[in-house]
Design a protein that fits this description.
The protein is α+β, with helices and mostly antiparallel strands and 152 residues long. It contains 5 helices and 4 strands. The protein has helices at 3-17, 66-69, 106-116, 129-143, 146-149, and strands spanning 25-28, 31-34, 37-47, 50-57. A 4-stranded antiparallel beta sheet has the order 1-2-3-4, covered by helices on one side. Helix 1 (3-17) packs across helix 3 (106-116). The mean pLDDT is 86.
Length: 152
């Protein structure tokens, strides 16, 4: 599908999966919002018939100010591709009377994805030895490096 359709499809799945947090949680473009405040953003990449879709959810407050993390909020920002559109943010935990852990989001999101993609029942599995080895390689050679994690 086209980019907008993919954002709409997955955004609606996430919105339905997380309505227990707020009935006002909704998808718009590539973001998830509660009211006018952003609680998540998504991106996608298409390669032939393959699609990589990923999203970020703001679950708990952080001692790090959002302005220090988001490139688009820094002086002199220049977009390299699709420009960011900074919005006022909130966290999912701020929308509830009691805080919760990120792990509590996994089951509702997995179940909503499985149902929407027609993979029901959905059973938990484990990584194959090859998948586990590859994840260790990527952590060691790329994603665990200080250079990768210090890129801002």
């Amino acid at each position: 599908s086209d980019v907008a359709t993919v954002f709409q499809f997955f955004g609606e799945i996430l919105s339905r999966a997380l309505t227990w947090i707020s009935s006002d949680l909704h998808a718009k473009d590539n973001g998830l919002y509660i009211g006018t405040k952003k609680v998540g953003g998504a991106a996608q990449a298409h390669r032939g018939r393959a699609l990589l879709y990923h999203t970020t959810l703001l679950v708990q407050e952080s001692p790090v100010c959002m302005e220090t993390i988001l490139s688009a909020m820094r002086p002199g920002y220049c977009a390299g591709g699709i420009a960011s559109r900074p919005r006022q943010t909130t966290t999912l935990s701020e929308q509830r009377a009691t805080p919760f852990e990120p792990q509590e989001l996994v089951t509702p999101i997995v179940e909503a994805l499985a149902s929407s993609l027609g993979v029901v029942p959905c059973a938990l599995g484990v990584l194959t030895p090859q998948e586990n080895q590859r994840s260790i390689e990527l952590q060691t050679t790329k994603y665990g490096s200080p250079e990768w994690n210090a890129r801002l």
